[in-house]
Specification:
Bound molecules: 7,8-dihydrobiopterin, fe (iii) ion
Strand content: 5-15%
Low-confidence stretches: 11-16
CATH architecture of the largest domain: Orthogonal Bundle
Structural class: alpha/beta
Largest sheet: 5 strands, mixed
Shape: globular
Strand order of the largest sheet: 7-6-9-8-10
Helix content: 40-55%
């Protein structure tokens, strides 16, 4: 393992682009400052106040089992035995975004990469790249749910396959991750609930994804999702709603991805905010407040 070093985003003609590195480090827990523990506390308390009645029960179950709290940034070394025992997952500390194949390789082996550094106080409300709060609070609680733990591993294995098939399959599989793991909603008897990590770790999107009239909310369908473009710089224009985590898991396992990529080959992608004739629509969004600079 190498010494951690904060890798800064680089300013290019495409804006700030994260530096991709595969380095695995030791979480430098003793080096976190009081201010950094405070940033964790602020974010944690804010989301805990907001998420009851909005996030799914399985998320809270995971959070409770892990014993995460506002008091201090959790130590990965204390979470790992709990994960190991329940679902066999392990956290590894990384510098930030990994190249896709390296990322898939970890997931396929039940290792979840967690960014070791936390955002700066001025980034409390928005940060464009994953930090410790997003990765740990957003992703890790559901890794204690066996069916979701299995889905994540299957996704990693699917990713390794997709990377061998080519760019189009890889793009399609990335959309699946985006619209489920990052920005998924689930239909429950009590109503729609959040399970996506990009939502649970964001105050603004926790409210927007469930309560705004602007976005579409559409029933999950694997091929539909794999054809849908997405935005990384605004709240989502469409959220896909699963009926159960079992449905999600079956989507990666029952139909092998090979035939799906074959079916999708050359099929035009759907714009992020479109509603298609075959969609099961929970809500057709008003589109209010969406950027006017065309769809993606
Ligand atoms: N790396 N650390 C990290 N975390 C991610 O969520 C991540 C990544 N690399 C690639 C990636 N996500 C996306 O390409 C996913 O669609 C797979
Ligand atoms: Fe994420």
């Amino acid at each position: 393992m190498e010494q951690p070093r904060r890798v800064e985003s680089q300013l290019t003609d495409k804006g700030y682009v994260p530096v991709y590195t595969t380095t695995v480090v030791e979480q430098p827990w003793d080096d976190y400052t009081e201010a950094e523990h405070q940033t964790w506390a602020t974010l944690f308390e804010r989301q805990i106040a907001l998420l009851p009645g909005r996030a799914c029960d399985e998320f809270f179950d995971g959070l409770r089992q892990l014993g995460m709290n506002a008091h201090a940034i959790p130590r990965f070394a204390e979470l790992n035995p709990i994960l190991k025992e329940r679902t066999g997952w392990q956290l590894i500390a990384v510098e930030g975004l990994l190249p896709e194949v390296a990322f898939f390789e970890h997931l396929a082996n039940r290792r979840f990469p967690v960014t070791w550094w936390i955002r700066k106080p001025e980034q409390i409300d928005y940060i464009s790249e994953p930090d410790l709060f997003h990765d740990l609070f957003g992703h890790v609680p559901l890794l204690l749910l066996p069916v979701f733990a299995d889905y994540m591993q299957a996704y990693g294995e699917g990713g390794l396959k997709a990377a061998r098939y080519g760019d189009e399959p890889l793009t399609e599989l990335t959309r699946l991750y985006w619209y489920t793991v990052e920005f998924g909603l689930i239909n429950t008897p009590a109503g729609l609930r959040i399970y996506g990590s990009g939502i649970v770790s964001s105050k603004g999107e926790s409210l927007y994804s469930l309560e705004s009239a602007a976005p579409n909310r559409i029933g999950f369908d694997l091929k539909r999702v794999m054809r849908t473009r997405y935005r990384i710089d605004t709240f989502q224009k469409t959220y896909f709603v699963i009926d159960s985590f079992e449905q999600l898991f079956r989507s990666t396992v029952d139909p092998d991805f090979g035939p799906i990529y074959y079916d999708l080959k050359g099929a035009p992608a759907f714009p992020a905010g479109s509603v298609q004739p075959q969609d099961r629509v929970f809500q057709k969004g008003t589109g209010e407040g969406w950027p006017a600079d065309g769809d993606v």
